[in-house]
Amino acid sequence: MATKIGITGGIGSGKSVVSHLFELRGIPVYISDTETKRLMVEDGRIRSDLISLLGEEVYAGAELNKPLLASYLFGAPQHAAQVNGIVHPRVKDDFRQWVTRQAAVPLVAMESAILLEAGFRGEVDVVVMVYAPLEVRMARAMQRDSASHAQIEQRIRSQMDDEEKRRLADFVIVNDGETPLIPQVLELITSLSKNNVYLCHPNK
């Protein structure tokens, strides 16, 4: 079975860049944000449970009613837990099936901003955190999303603190715009490839 690498980091850290570098080295990457959005539309169990929770109007035809869902999610702290309880188990199942289909490769990866918060640590063998200073992350996210400082700040506060993520990660890649990124990624891939047999746990 392939060794599973979890790629995480806060908003604006550059997870997507690192994931792309992994893909360029022939390592398939499961982009959890993209796949979650797909499943929320296509997965029958998620649709049924969300309709039970929020009513038929949570879907507008074949599309998710994103404004309604967002309004509910930010309405109360427990609302996010309710929606996550519906969605995250299905994402885990989908990831496991995806990993099975990658049987011919030694390394696969999952990119997730909330990998640790969402309880996906047990789905991967190693966690790689992409780290950048807060001011760098803020600037990147504001430019990328055309969002205000306050909007990005709110999103950052909703995620796990970077220092806590660093403590829980097995590897840290620094993407501060000054430290060369590609050599770090290549060194990490080389290390994981060499130690593949030791990192792949039979119970995962």
List keywords for this structure.
204 residues, alpha/beta, 2 domains, disordered C terminus
Number of DSSP helices?
10
CATH topology of the largest domain: Rossmann fold
End-to-end C-alpha gap:
9 Å
CATH class label of the largest domain:
Alpha Beta
Mean pLDDT: 91
Give a quick account of the main beta sheet: strands, pairing sense, barrel closure.
5 strands, parallel
Estimated radius of gyration = 18 Å
What kind of assembly state do the chains in view correspond to? single chain
Written overview of the protein:
With 204 residues, the chain is an alpha/beta fold. It has 2 domains: 1-28 and 104-204, 3-Layer(aba) Sandwich (Rossmann fold); 34-101, no CATH class. The strands form 2 sheets. Strands 2-5-1-6-7 form a 5-stranded parallel β-sheet, with helices on both faces. The protein has 10 helices and 7 strands. The chain is globular. Strand 3 (59-60) and strand 4 form a beta hairpin. It has helices spanning 15-24, 32-42, 44-54, 66-73, 77-101, 134-145, 149-157, 162-168, 181-194, 196-199, and strands at 3-8, 29-31, 59-60, 63-64, 107-111, 126-131, 171-174. Helix 3 packs antiparallel against helix 5 (77-101).
